[in-house]
Design brief:
With 64 residues, the chain is of the alpha+beta class. It has one helix at residues 34-51; strands at residues 2-8, 12-18, 24-31, 55-60. It has a single domain, classed as Nucleotidyltransferase, domain 5 (2-Layer Sandwich). The longest helix has 18 residues, at 34-51.
Length: 64
């Protein structure tokens, strides 16, 4: 199992993907533009397939 942390900001998402040993597999900032978010999830899907793992996500964002 992989773990994805997502911290939402107005113009970007900060994402971190770690494995069960807490090794960082991916750490980056992603624009909140829909095309960039879709591109990120394509990258995430490929990375999970390479590791033969699924992921769970934890999301932190603002509630207005």
């Amino acid at each position: 199992m992989l773990f994805l942390g997502i911290d939402q900001h107005a113009r970007q998402l900060t994402v971190l993907l770690i494995d069960q040993q807490e090794d960082v597999l991916l750490a980056q900032q992603v624009s909140t533009r829909p095309s960039k978010i879709l591109q990120f999830f394509d990258q995430l899907t490929q990375l999970c397939a390479e590791h033969k793992e699924s992921f769970i996500a934890v999301f932190e964002g603002l509630i207005k």
